[in-house]
Amino acid sequence: MSTAKEFRAKSAADLQKELLELRREQFNLRMARATGQTAKPDQFTKVRRNIARLKMVAAEQRRGQAQNSGKGK
Which fold, 4-67? Predict the structure, then answer.
């Protein structure tokens, strides 16, 4: 499981790549559940929370960049 601290150390492009991987994993878990092959039901919660953490950090970074660009004026 990733932490917000680990996500903050990544660039915006890395965060987008990580989000894509987490979304793909979430999809695969849903497909496995639908076919009755799911082994660890706690993985759904972990992936969902990691996506939320990642989106929160990405929004923080965007707000930080917007504030920094506005200071020069």
Answer: Helix Hairpins (1.10.287)
| Of 63, 73, 54, nearest in space to 6 by CA | 54
Name the H helices within 1-73: 4-8, 12-34, 42-71
Distance CA 18, CA 61 (A): 15
Condensed to tens digits (0 to 9), the pLDDT of residues 6-63 reads 888 999 899 999 999 999 999 999 999 999 987 788 999 999 999 999 999 999 999 9
pLDDT, tens digit, 9 for 90 and up, residues 4-16: 888 889 998 999 9
> CA of 37: how far to CAs of 6, 22, 27, 32, 44, in Å?
31, 19, 13, 5, 13
Q: For the chain, what are the domain ranges?
A: 4-67
